[in-house]
Write a structure and sequence with these properties.
heterodimer; A: about 260 residues; alpha+beta; SH3 type barrels; 3 domains; five-stranded antiparallel sheet; about 60% helix; B: about 600 residues; Immunoglobulin-like; 4 domains; seven-stranded mixed sheet; rod-shaped
């Protein structure tokens, strides 16, 4: 009887060990400072078991610890794309950005920054439900206006309804924004140690072709993409906009879309 | 009076004691180098004693010309009322230097007050006389100046050979960090009245340690010429880099003294003339060898020969009581430029920043530095137990053997006992500092993973929910509108129904009349009439009184007469209920009256 109980316990433990997910194994590899292994396991988990903001955040940490700043930035950006409200990912992204060679230029206006901050403060779903809740309140105010006999209540319903309508219009924009930034694939991060931006989709031949050299971890906006079958290095070039507004071309293989 | 005598006696005694205290000594006045062919004197000095002249020593290569000559000197001085007397006798012997070479002066003895005093043996050099040089011959037949003959030091051009400043190294090739002595020496054939360096030689690539110099002049033969020489500067140098290190030449403004011969009739004398000359020193260079590579682990740039010891004071350690662990390097070499050893203390022992104490002095006749390099670590054990302070081996390079050598330092076992003093109360410190690293990972299983990231905003259900709310609102509005309309129609319907209801009730009353059930007839008639009035005039049953009905009927537009008839019928019905036994004719009459009253009310509406 005793022996049976022991075997049962051992079996349970073994089963539990088997049940450990790839992501959990990756966590323990990270904690043991096997960052290379953690990166492989996180990537495997993302491919097999699906995406999550936390997983991308952890992957970014592993990349940073392993010295791949570009990949780290990419992973944090992906974590934020899934959930803009992932505050830890934002903090680490800001920290890693402070370590990369190219200083990101910040020329966004105050209100835009405030709006972006608001968008990032909650998950897209939370924003969608907030907009919905305001809409429900708006319907309530309309009902108050329509059904009430009391003049004061009707006034409240009318003006409250107007305010709620404005609020609803803004919040539906915020929700749309949150959902659209989460879904856009227009941004890319440089993962090569450095890449030369050129004025045409081909390797720079003369000094005048060279626009600027950007380094690992810098974020660019992809505007256009062109296939270059003749290029021996990269079969595709992107037309990108860097944060000071300059548009130039770079090899698609040097960057990775978020 | 007796006191005064006593004082005199005392003074005498002190004087006698003072005289007795002075020991007679005998020594040779160190002779200086001389030039061949010149006369020189050798002087022995006997201080505070009296003796016969000693035997003249036999000097090799010299001929005794005269001696001994004696001169006596005595001095008395009173300092703070205390008198001291010293006397000395000089015995001089005059020799002629015949052959160049080193002359050893043997010890000479004299007997003084029953004791034999011996002078120390010394040696000096007889320098060969000046070699005529080509340069000096070409100067218009002017003879080259000689150091010991002012008559040759006539004014004229000062040749480069007459005044030289030389920088020389004690070794021509050294290892990095191996000490080498540089000497700046001036060679002159003239007297020098002033010597001003305008540019000092720069010792670049060296760490310098100035050595003391005695500004004594000697005679020296250099390049076949005799010069007065004096050491200007001596430096102990530690080369810091390999390769050929060159010292820039320094520039000096020198004022020399030349002698002009003046003919004063009978006499010919020399008159000194000062003359300003600028000279520069040679650019000396030194070959510095790199230390052999690879240097062994733990080598910190120590070059020389060293021994190491460690001490622990006090050896019995207690928690929270400080002990000092000293790492003492002793030896010769670049002791001043050693690095402190990185002694690591075990966990549980707090170590403070070590204090370094260097005690070094020049040795080996000013060619090296010797001393101790002591590093004190103040340590405070925090835990009770047995620990070991690992000895850090000391690695140095020995330039003599050309090899690296390692001094193994034994480990120091320590035993820590519980101390009496409590841990010092730490002053409160501000918690500050920002994160300068990424945040740690979060548990990966805290969030559900999904292959397709879906957002509520883009799901149809979300927008259907909006549509549902709008539709619900519209539906509520429609239903409400209809309800309002119905409620507005309720009184009209009642009015419309009133006639029909009354006819129906009157029919009940008529049936009761035909059956001759007179009691039932009156009850049915009253009920029909009251109900009709209630519906017709929109009066609730509770407010149905005779006065109310009269008022409402008048307001309704019924004539006074007709109103009175209605009220009369109502009164008859009430009365008949309490007075039974009515004839059939009475019943029929009342029925007709009630029907007529209802008809009149109906007619009002039609008008």
């Amino acid at each position: 009887m005793k022996k049976f109980a022991l075997i049962a316990i051992l079996l349970t433990i073994a089963l539990q060990a088997m049940a450990l997910s790839t992501a959990t194994l990756a966590d323990s590899a990270y904690n043991k400072e096997n960052y290379r292994e953690a990166i492989d396991l996180y990537n495997k988990s993302l491919a097999d078991d699906g995406l999550s903001s936390t997983l991308f955040y952890n992957l970014g940490n592993a990349y940073y610890r392993n010295g791949n700043l570009g990949k780290a930035v990419l992973s944090y950006e992906r974590a934020l794309r899934i959930n803009p409200a992932n505050a830890d990912a934002r903090q680490n992204l800001d920290f890693v950005r402070s370590q990369i060679q190219d200083r990101p230029e910040d020329d966004t206006a105050f209100f835009v920054k405030m709006h972006n901050g608001l968008v990032a403060s909650m998950s897209p779903d939370a924003w969608a439900w907030t907009a919905f809740a305001i809409f429900v309140l708006l319907a309530g105010a309309a009902a108050l206006y329509i059904f009430s006999r009391n003049i004061a209540l009707r006034k409240t319903g009318f003006f409250g309804g107007i305010v709620l309508l404005c609020a609803f219009a803004y919040f539906i924009c915020v929700a749309a924004d949150a959902a659209s930034t989460a879904g856009s694939h227009d941004d890319a991060v440089v993962i090569a140690p450095s890449t030369q931006l050129t004025s045409a989709p081909r390797a720079a031949r003369a000094a005048s072709d060279k626009v600027v050299t950007i380094h690992e971890g810098t974020k660019v906006e992809v505007i256009d993409s062109v296939a270059t079958p003749d290029d021996p290095v990269s079969p595709r070039w992107y037309n990108v906009k860097i944060n000071n507004g300059t548009k130039a071309w770079l090899r698609a293989s040097d960057v990775e879309r978020i | 009076m007796p006191t005064k005598r006593f004082i005199i006696l005392l003074l005498l005694a002190v004087t006698a004691l003072g005289a007795m205290a002075q020991q007679a000594s005998f020594a040779i006045v160190p002779p200086r180098n001389v030039v061949q062919g010149r006369n020189f004197s050798l002087t022995f000095r006997l201080s505070d004693g009296e003796s016969a002249a000693p035997q003249a020593p036999q000097l090799e290569g010299c001929t005794l010309l005269y001696g001994p000559a004696m001169s006596t000197m005595q001095s008395t001085q009173i300092v703070n009322g205390r008198m001291s007397t010293s006397s000395s006798i000089d015995f001089s012997f005059t020799y002629r230097a015949d052959t160049p070479g080193t002359v050893k002066v043997p010890a000479v003895s004299v007997s003084c007050e029953g004791k034999t005093l011996r002078s120390n043996p010394v040696s000096f050099q007889i320098l060969p006389s000046d070699q005529p040089t080509q340069g000096s011959q070409s100067q218009g037949g002017q003879p080259a100046p000689r150091v010991d003959d002012p008559s040759t030091q006539t004014p004229g051009r000062v040749s480069a050979n007459d005044l030289i400043v030389r920088v020389s190294f004690s070794k021509s090739s050294v290892y990095e960090q191996e000490p080498v002595v540089a000497t700046i020496k001036v060679y002159t054939k003239y007297d020098i009245s002033s010597f001003m360096p305008t540019t000092q030689p720069a010792f670049e690539g060296f760490l310098c340690e100035e050595l003391p110099v005695s500004y004594e002049t000697t005679l020296e033969n250099y390049n076949g010429q005799n010069y007065h020489t004096a050491v200007l500067k001596r430096l102990l140098l530690y080369p810091q880099k390999e390769g050929k290190l060159t010292v820039n030449s320094g520039k000096y403004d020198v004022t020399i003294v030349q002698y002009e011969t003046v003919n004063m009739g009978f006499f010919r004398t020399q008159r000194p003339i000062e003359r300003q000359v600028t000279t520069s020193s040679n650019a000396a260079s030194l070959q510095v060898k790199a230390l052999p590579q690879p240097a062994p682990a733990g080598f910190n740039g120590a070059v020389g020969s060293f021994t190491v010891s460690t001490t622990l004071e006090p050896e019995l350690m207690r928690t929270n009581e400080a002990s000092v662990y000293s790492y003492i390097v002793k030896g010769r070499g670049n002791i001043k430029y050693l690095a402190e050893p990185g002694v690591q203390f075990p966990a549980g022992i707090d170590a403070y920043t070590p204090k370094t104490d260097i005690d070094a002095s020049i040795t080996g006749g000013g060619t090296n530095m010797a001393g101790t390099f002591k590093t004190d670590y103040t340590i405070v054990p925090q835990e009770v137990g047995n620990f070991t302070i690992e000895g850090v081996p000391f690695v140095y390079f020995n330039p003599e053997s050309g090899k690296y050598e390692t001094v193994e330092v034994p480990d120091t076992p320590i035993k820590v006992l519980r101390g009496n003093s409590a841990a010092p109360v730490q002053s409160q410190t501000e918690i500050e500092g920002s994160i300068d690293d990424i945040l740690h990972i979060k548990a990966s299983d805290s969030e559900r993973q999904s292959h397709a990231i879906s957002y509520v905003f883009r799901s149809p259900a979300y927008w259907i929910a909006y549509a549902a709310i709008v539709l619900a609102l519209i539906a509520v509005v429609i239903i409400y509108r209809r309800h309002i309309r119905l409620r507005a129609d309720v009184s009209g319907q009642r009015l419309a129904k009133a006639g029909r209801v009354a006819t129906k009730r009157l029919r009940e009353a008529r049936a009761a009349m035909n059956a001759h059930r007179n009691d039932d007839f009156y009850a049915a008639l009253a009920k029909a009439l009251w109900g009709y009035l209630s519906d017709k005039l929109s009066i609730s049953a509770s407010q149905l009184t005779r006065e109310n009905i009269e008022e409402k009927l008048t307001a309704y537009g019924l004539g006074h007469e007709d109103t009175a008839k209605v009220l009369d019928v109502l009164d008859q019905c009430e009365m008949a209920r309490f007075t039974p036994q009515h004839s059939d004719a009475e019943v029929a009459g009342l029925y007709d009256e009630a029907a007529a009253a209802i008809k009149n009310i109906e007619d009002v509406k039609k008008r």
